[in-house]
Amino acid sequence: MDPERAVARLEEVEAAFAHLDGAGRALLLGLADHSPFLWQRVVRDPGRVAAMLERPPERVVADLIARQRSAARSESGEVRDLDAVAAELRRNRGDHALLVALADIGGLWPLATVTRALSDFADASVHAAAESLLLQAAEAGRFHPHDVSNPQLKSGLVILGLGKLGAGELNYSSDIDLVVFFDPDIARLKEGLAPTPFFSKLAQGIAKLLQERTAEGYVHRVDYRLRPDPGSTPTAISLNSAYLYYENLGQNWERAAYIKARAIAGDIEAGEHFLTGLRPFVWRKYFDFASIADVHAMKRQIHAVRGHDTIAVAGHDIKLGRGGIREIEFFVQTQQLVFGGRRPDLRGRRTIAMLSALTEEGWIDATARDELGQAYDFLRTVEHRLQMVNDEQTQRLPTEEAGLESFARFAGFADAKAFETELFHHARRVQAHYALLFEAEPDLSASVGNLVFSGTDNDPATLATLRTLGFADPERVAETVRGWHFGRRPAVRTARAREVLTELVPALMQALGGTPNPDVALDTLDRAFARMPAAVELLTILRSNDCLRLLFADLLGSAPRLAETVAFSPHVLDTVIDPAFVVPKVDAEDIAAQYHGLVGKPAAYEDFLDRSRDAARQLRFVTGARLLTGILSPQAAGRAYAGIADAVVAASLDAVSRQFFAEHGEVPGGRCVVLGLGRLGANQMTAESDIDLVVLYDFDAENRTSLGPKAIDAVMAYNRLTQRLVAALTALTRRGGLYEVDLRLRPGGGQGPVAVQMRSFLPYQQEEADLWEHMALTRARVVAGDRSLGDEVMGQIRTIVGLKRETAEVYRAVRDMRRVVASEKGFSGPLDLKLAPGGLLDLDFMAQALTLAHAESHPGLVGLDASAVFAEAGNRGLLPVNEARRLGEAYRLFDDVLHWQRLMGEADSKAGASVALTRLAIAMGLPDAATLAAELDERRAEVRSLFERLLG
Question: What residues are paired with 189 via a beta bridge?
């Protein structure tokens, strides 16, 4: 503020304003003193400004708008090139900006006239830009207008103005919110030219023509972000796609935006028809109180600081701050959304008019109407003064005392104190009315700060909260969550899902923030939403139960595969709030009883398959959750997983047998059993183990044909039965799958029949089998089938395992086999606990070698798991006691880590996977990934040394 300099500036151009009266001279002095932008417009061509001042401002503005609207052509009617159009648009805008400011500051126009003049001019600018681009396309042969003199008519191009532009309430230096649609059935484009790229490029051209800064300045900044899902859609969208989006995925904030929507350029008739068709989306037939929460969430999102009740003048945002313009607009728009479906008089675009309509309809009183109307007029006028200083889109008051004092005088006040008094007077009134409307609404923000994701923009306070919660990439997190609200994932495309999601997200983000890697946990949930057909049940459960929400977040961060189970079957979460969750039973009989209780009594075989999958999924989930929470040790979890598989295999064998023998009849003397080998046989299954099975059967050799209507030979019967069993265990139904099944450990491997005759089993093993087949039998047990046959099979297995063998020969064969595995399979890196040298395979091979070499003289070795074999070998003097202890400890460590790997989904971990190592370290109770890696490396080196020492 420098009055003397202002006088000097005016004297430089005063000759052009010889006929100016005192009021006019004071007005120009105000511009010279307070507005560099406006004064620059004055001094650029004083004579031109003086000529404008000699005419009524309404006539000058009408002429400028007419010139702006026709800028695509010269006065002689020739099509201008884009550079000429750009120059004309900017010249007109400079004159218009100055004239509107003079009429506003000089008190000639009320606020409504000012905003209407600004909006009409913007309409003309967009019209001219669209016309210019269409004419250019027509000259290039890419567009064929119905009428060359009016190329926008029936062009298929629809340009809607939203926000303040749509309402006719544009502010002085505002962005203009545009949405561009097109109707491919109307548009006459060059044959073969795709409409989406054409109209998207045209929309981009309009934006460039209007907002690119040149020596003449710019016309309008263009914002296309109010279109459907702007993060994943082209700039221009077909009308049909827009209808489908709003019908299925439209959000309440978009309904609020469309209250003010207006067709401003392009094919106006098509635009108005589109808005008519969109009315059911915007205006619900019932009183829509549910929308209040979403609109209030938008308001909280734009608060720079949550919960501040004191309005500080210096630096205050008169639009977004407390008691500001946006609170008045939301006060009106929210009630329009709630009541407008039943009250057509509440569907207007302009704020002041709708305050009156709300009063007439009885929803607010005259005091609220008058006080909010007066505040709106005051705040919008202040907003214009702020923007007139430097032609900037700002609503923030100066922060320094001198700047605030200068602005107060520019706004017509004697000093900053007088301005402050008036601002407080209006802002506090706005706050009071706004609070009455929203004070009882649910708080979607979090105690840690803003966590609101409505709209299209990132809220700085929300990003700061995400960082505080531990998210490494808050911008990407915000975009992901916003994508859910836009319905980018199938699981959250229904209106009900998004309603629950709106309420849940803040609490869910806090829960995810408590996981070791919140970004990874969020990505896991996002992938689950992409695969799930619906998520309402899951979201509702998580919203209503804090403990389950925290557990689910823990699963997302630590055990993604368990989280996927929850996503597929949300009801499994019920099991963790059952008191029995903390008192697990892992013996096979108890698990079988739980399994059968869940399966119940299926009505048909297909029903059994679905129920079996659901039951197994729930039991595996409970086992994994107990492991994750420390209720089960990895060793106990291994027994539980094996018990689940036992129950599933046994029930599946019963189900397929009933169906098969009902069709073909019983086989005389027929019996069969299913052997479990590998990790199933050793009761050491992990969350992701497949199952190694061998089916053995017996029958009356003298009477080998089944007794049913479709009689078949016994051998064919049991091989077909085995195939059906495998199908029952592996087939994907609508409820998913069960297990991968491997039958290659049967005699003959993958070459012979899938089922093995009992009478040939022992001779084969004694006379033909390789040592690796006997090694597999050290971990064999009966998991299903006829008990008497099972006893016979296990007796034969003990005989086979206990055969007398040369120790050196056994050790040599095992060593050679390990070399073959290493050459054929290799290993994937330091997290490959199974195949890496010194890992679990080395330990299992050593335990099996000890058993086969010494079982004849030490039968106590038969039937033990590897760590127990080492202990028994130490006790029997087959290994030094210290070495036996170290091998047992290594086995337990590696096996525990493997369990955590499979639970966490790290089965395919690659070398140096730091995230995997960190998660495993936390699970194993170690301080960090480096400690775990060092421990694994040290133990593997030791095991490998002992392997070579034992086996030579």
Answer: 143
Taking the alpha carbons at both ends of the chain, their separation in whole angstroms is 94
Q: What is the pLDDT of residues 295-318, one digit of tens each?
A: 555 555 444 333 344 567 888 999
* C-alpha to C-alpha distance for 460 and 518, rounded to whole angstroms: 19
Alpha helix segments (H runs only) across 36-178: 36-44, 46-53, 57-69, 82-105, 111-139, 163-167
What are the b/e assignments for 736-774, b being 16+ CB within 10 Å? eebbebbbebbbeeeeebbbbbbeebbebbeeebebbbb
Task: Let me know how long the chain is.
Answer: 952
Do 283 and 340 form a contact (C-beta atoms < 8 A)? yes
Distances (CA, A) of 114 to 25, 97, 550, 678: 21, 11, 54, 82
Burial class of residue 857 (count of CB atoms within 10 Å of its CB; 0-12, 13-18, 19+): exposed
- Amino acid, res. 915: V
Q: What is the mean pLDDT of residues 512-536?
A: 85
Are 451 and 468 in contact by the 8 Å Cβ rule? The answer is: no
Collapsed DSSP state (helix, strand, coil) of residue 323: coil
Q: DSSP secondary-structure letter at 602?
A: -
In the block, tokens 């079982």 appear at 855
Contact 177, 160 (CB under 8 A): no
Question: Are 118 and 166 within 8 A, CB to CB?
Answer: no
pLDDT band at 444 (very low <50, low <70, confident <90, very high): very low
Amino acid found at 578: D
- Helix residue spans in 317-459 (DSSP H): 325-339, 351-360, 366-390, 401-410, 416-438
CA distance 271 to 261: 10
DSSP letter (8 states) at residue 582 = G
For 736, the 3-state DSSP assignment is strand
Round to whole Å and give the CA distance between 431 and 425. 10
Question: What is the distance between the alpha carbons of residues 342 and 330, in angstroms, rounded to a whole number?
Answer: 19
The pTM assigned to this predicted structure is: 0.61
What are the backbone angles phi and psi of residue 658, rounded to the nearest 5°?
-60, -45
Measure the CA–CA gap between 766 and 222, rounded to whole angstroms.
Answer: 85
Are 244 and 289 within 8 A, CB to CB? no
Looking up tokens 């001019």, which residue turns up?
121
Query: To 10 degrees, the CA torsion angle through 82, 87, 91, 96?
Result: 30
Give the HSE-up count for residue 862: Cα atoms under 13 Å, Cβ half-sphere.
21
Q: How far is CA 875 from the centre of its chain?
A: 57
